[in-house]
Amino acid sequence: MYHTSSPAPIHHVMTAIPAGGEDTARRFYVDLLGLTEEPKPPTLGSRGGIWLATGSLSLHLGVDPAFAPATKAHIALVYDNLGDVRNTLSAAGFEPGELEHELPGFVRCYVSDPFGNRIELMQPQ
Prior knowledge:
Layout: E1 13-17, H1 22-32, E2 36-38, E3 50-53, E4 58-63, E5 74-78, H2 82-91, E6 106-112, E7 118-124
Parallel strand pairs: 1-4, 5-7
Antiparallel strand pairs: 2-3, 3-4, 6-7
């Protein structure tokens, strides 16, 4: 079936974290990657997880009792100074991969969050 109207903007992207991983996620995503935590609606608070934002993206980290890390699927975050982000992550014990230049207009690398989820870090060239 074909739709005759354009899709609406993406509201959010969700990735999974293990039960009890909220504080660890905050340290990584807020303290190291610079995302901002948003309050969850009270009706959803009992489910655990956290909601984050960057300005153009809402990222929901949801608790999955059968958690398995996303090692291929990933989110991609764009930074003005990828070198600073890489240094911050390295100092905290998270080693970003080698810089890649194969995506036109960007330099990028990958890092795993504390749970093994793949994160792409990008900078426009």
